[in-house]
Amino acid sequence: MNHTPRWPVVLFDFDGTLANTIDGIVASYTYAWDAVTGRQVARTEILPWIGRTLTDVFTEQAPEQAAELERVYMDHNFANLETNVTGYPGIPELLQDLVTAGVATAVVTAKRRRTAIPAMRVAGLPAQTVLACAKEDTDRHKPDPAPLLRGLETLGAQAANSVYVGDAVYDLLAAQAAGMDGVGVTWGAGDPDELRAQRSVAVVDTVPELRSLLLG
Fold it and tell me: Is the full-model pTM beyond 0.85?
């Protein structure tokens, strides 16, 4: 099949975009808050945090306990990674077809490399999928454009002919700030109406829709 890619460079968010990690993230947040502070946190409170770094969330919510909260979260999340990461049907094939079509394809995530690399493996992403930027690679994080710009730098690419795909408002805001096109997906943690309220090329509801947009 001959594909005509719309963009020569496609950067992806990971959590909720390339893999269903949402339940695992919620479980790790719930565990950390309870273990460190005794606080019971509802899923509805946690979902808007997804897409931000743990450091930013915990520092905002409980600055004096942020470091311990992050440590406990990371240990819990890593220990349960094999069962808390599920690939979305059609995503590995889409990424493989992008690579085959000559599209520079990479992940830019707020996860640390310690969890991002094995999570990409568990999700079944093609081996050619580059982890272009993880949490520790920049001092500033989404919605700041720094991670996306670092990802582009890693690939030797320019913002003008690139797109960032993500499931959170923070992803689309970061893409806009970086001078990139943005595409939202509704199968992750983000609110579909909030995604559609942002400036973006499109918001898609299914992997086949995303495939058509990226590959033509």
Answer: yes
Verify that 119 and 203 share a domain, yes or no: yes
Give the pairing of strands 162-166 and 104-108: unpaired
Longest dimension (CA), the chain: 56
Q: Comparing C-alpha atoms, which of 86, 157, 152, 162 is closest to residue 125?
A: 86
Residues 29, 54: Cα–Cα separation, whole Å: 9
> Which residues are bridge partners to 12 per DSSP?
107, 165
The parent domain of residue 146 ranges over 9-21+86-215
Q: What is the pLDDT along the chain (216 residues), one digit of tens a residue?
A: 566 899 999 999 999 999 999 999 999 999 999 999 999 999 999 999 998 999 999 999 999 999 999 999 999 999 999 999 999 999 999 999 999 999 999 999 999 999 999 999 999 999 999 999 999 999 999 999 999 999 999 999 999 999 999 999 999 999 999 999 999 999 999 999 999 999 999 999 999 999 999 998
Whether residue 98 is found in the same domain as residue 74: no
Q: Give the list of residues 6+ apart from residue 130 with CB closer than 8 angstroms, or none.
A: 105, 106, 107, 154, 155
Distance, CA of 84 to CA of 79 (rounded, Å) = 10
